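> example.struct
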């Protein structure tokens, strides 16, 4: 007789627990859904603040005021975004005449015949040469006819790209505002995260929170700082050698370096163009400079990553590349943090088993 009430109480407790967990899950999901428009800006702001927090504290110690340091750091972020854009626009305006001449030459120049070496390419050479000859025989009208079906898709892509630029600007402004708030209340946010980690998993949870911050700082030092150093050096070389659109090409190099592709994708064609234009001396200079710039990341990145966190270099590099493919540009930070936390938890778990 006494087992029946106990079983009923157990069932009631189980139902209460299930409902409580379900309610918490619904609340968490609803909160993420409501904050979904701001999540990318919040993640970016958190990554920036964690990576640059020691720099902000150093600046605050010299200026004696938190708000002055926050204002300077936020202004530097705006300049990092705006200066490459201004350089690109300036390069386009300065070379407007050159772009116009290229357009006129492209519109009036006769279509060249297929080169002899094209047909010698295995498997696809003969078909490519035949297609080239067909296009040349059809003239510019034939090219326009072939491209007409793709014109609408190109227009849609251009409209989406323009809209993406506007959305990116709004997200950037939100990131700046959230970054200012995080800089101002950084200690409170850090203490809250550590308390959450400790409440969730005890001392190990606290260690995971600290490790995530170290991994973010390591990526910021090893990837972003190296990319900035390579971009500045490459831009100086392009400007000294007199390459057209040097500002625009420097912005492209920054994107390529952050994406871990490297600056040589821009520098090598620039060297070829110098030799083709007859500037042999400047071509040799830029070739040597490009080799130095291309090897900078092999020296700088390991040193800077080791300063940020004591993690395997291969782990950080795999996280950067894999995160970039999986999550886009924000994956530069999300990927290494995820791998670093997983690696540390597995290592601690195996060490406990050995003990």
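> example.seq
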């Amino acid at each position: 007789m006494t087992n029946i009430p106990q079983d009923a109480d157990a069932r009631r407790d189980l139902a209460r627990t299930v409902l409580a967990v379900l309610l918490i899950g619904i609340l968490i999901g609803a909160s993420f859904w409501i904050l979904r428009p701001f999540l990318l800006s919040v993640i970016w702001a958190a990554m920036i603040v964690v990576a640059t927090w020691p720099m902000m504290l150093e600046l605050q110690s010299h200026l004696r005021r938190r708000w002055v340091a926050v204002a300077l750091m936020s202004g530097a972020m705006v300049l990092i975004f705006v200066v490459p854009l201004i350089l690109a626009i300036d390069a386009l305006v300065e070379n407007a005449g050159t772009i116009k001449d290229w357009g006129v030459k492209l519109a009036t120049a006769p279509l060249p015949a297929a080169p002899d070496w094209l047909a010698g390419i295995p498997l696809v050479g003969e078909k490519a040469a035949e297609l080239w000859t067909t296009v040349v025989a059809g003239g510019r009208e034939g090219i326009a006819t072939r491209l007409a079906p793709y014109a609408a898709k190109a227009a849609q892509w251009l409209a989406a790209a323009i809209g993406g630029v506007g959305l990116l600007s709004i997200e950037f402004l939100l990131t700046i505002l959230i970054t200012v708030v995080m800089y101002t209340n950084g200690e409170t946010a850090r203490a809250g995260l550590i308390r959450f980690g400790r409440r969730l998993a005890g001392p190990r949870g606290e260690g995971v929170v600290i490790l995530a911050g170290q991994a973010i700082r390591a990526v910021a030092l090893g990837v972003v700082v190296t990319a900035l150093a390579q971009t500045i050096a490459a831009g100086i070389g392009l400007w000294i050698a007199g390459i057209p659109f040097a500002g625009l090409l420097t912005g492209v190099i920054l994107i390529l370096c952050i994406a871990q592709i490297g600056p040589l994708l821009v520098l090598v064609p620039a060297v070829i163009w110098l030799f083709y234009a007859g500037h042999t001396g400047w071509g040799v200079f830029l070739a040597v400079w490009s080799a130095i710039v291309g090897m900078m990341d092999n020296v700088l990145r390991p040193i800077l990553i080791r300063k940020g966190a004591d993690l395997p270099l291969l782990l950080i590099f795999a996280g950067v590349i894999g995160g970039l493919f999986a999550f886009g540009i924000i994956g530069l930070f999300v990927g290494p943090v995820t791998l670093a936390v997983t690696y540390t938890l597995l290592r601690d778990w195996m060490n406990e088993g050995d003990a």
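> remarks
The mean pLDDT is 76.
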